[in-house]
Amino acid sequence: MLAPSGKIPSEGSGDNSGPAQTAASNWTTQCTGIKTLHESRGCAVVELTGTFEPAVATASGPDDSHPNVPRRWQAQYRLDRGSRRLFYRVRFSPVAEEGLAIEEAWRRRPVLRVATAEPTPVVRAMMREKLVRTSARSFQTSLGYVIDEDERATLIASESSTIHRRSGDRFFDSLLTVDSADKIANGDTRHGWDTVSDDAKSGEAWSGWQSFAFGFDVKHPVAAAKSFAMGEPVWAVPIASNSGSLAKASPRGWLIHPSPSSLDVQIVDVGRVRDSGAAEDSDAKQGQPRELMALHLRVIQTASRAASASLRFCRDVDSVYEVSSLSRPFRRDTGNGELTLQRLAEISNPESIQQEGDRVRWSHPSHGVVHMVVLFEIGGRA
């Protein structure tokens, strides 16, 4: 984390800008304390506190013409055992309520800096649940971004819309806010923070917490960023074993397994489909049409490449139908009434997706979105 004005400028403006100018910055970031708030076999939380102080070369304090510029900061790190994500949150004092233009905010607000091992890495910003490669000096994301290097991929996930920019060849800055806690969603419980520091009990006015998550080689960066933004903690699935040995533990299963891993699967609706034609079948119960459980899925290709996609379910699939992205056949306000298999066949393209056993396959376009209705026999074998 860097103090205001203690940053490499994002845009060069002559000989007076660049990394060399950083040494003449007005402020420096100093850490005055570090302590462990929580330590157990499953989780550890460490807290750092510090101040923004004038640099040695500066005779006066940090821009006294703006009294609401933050002077103190408090940051906490949390690491869960076995997790690929490091959770981070930070807040400042005093609180600054006035609004600033973007250029002014970059000078008078602190930033969160990320350094890379390699120069000029590939950056993929998350825009509308898709990873979009960007070479822009400054960019804004709602979920965060991914830094792709030859030997690693790092996810920087944010809980709200954040402005980022490149600083030099190896640094990326995220603009932080110092608004009051009333204007920022409370992340104390949303992200599993259950520790309270001494500063929180002192009554001093602090800004709201801003939370970030750093993921290291996560398989599903968009899903991980969405889970973090929603504030839902990811609980570990307990392994039941009578003997206590992990080698003899009961096997785990899945509900939906996507391939490739860049697919983001979302459940739009759950409903039932009635097959009225099955009432005439000799195998069906006389006078009773067959009912099928239905999942309306939205599948998004987050990567910028076409793929031969597939979904594998925990049980056999009866049939699958591709529907329009604007279609909501299970919503009561659409006026469709009871959905039958015959009506579903009329509003869909059943030939575009192949089904075999518990797996469905189709060709997915680059950054494309596919809507499908997957049917399962009620009471059938898993």
Describe this structure in words.
This protein has five helices and 22 strands. The protein is mainly β and 382 residues long. A nine-stranded antiparallel β-sheet has the order 1-2-3-4-13-10-9-6-7, with helices on one face. It has a five-stranded antiparallel β-sheet with strand order 15-16-22-18-19. Strand 20 (354-356) and strand 21 form a beta hairpin. The longest helix has 10 residues, at 221-230. The protein is elongated. The protein starts with 26 loop residues before the first strand and ends in a 5-residue tail after the last strand. Residues 1-24 are annotated as: Disordered. Residues 13-24 have a biased composition (Polar residues).
CATH architecture of the largest domain: Distorted Sandwich
What is the first-to-last residue Cα distance?
A: 51 Å
Task: Extract low-pLDDT stretches.
Answer: 10-24, 58-62, 236-241
The major sheet is characterized as: 9 strands, antiparallel
CATH-level-4 superfamily name of the largest domain: Golgi alpha-mannosidase II, domain 4
What is the helical fraction, as a range of percent?
under 10%
* Overall pLDDT level: 79
Strand arrangement, largest sheet?
1-2-3-4-13-10-9-6-7
List SSEs in N-to-C order: EEEEHEEEEEEEEHHEHEEEEEHEEEE
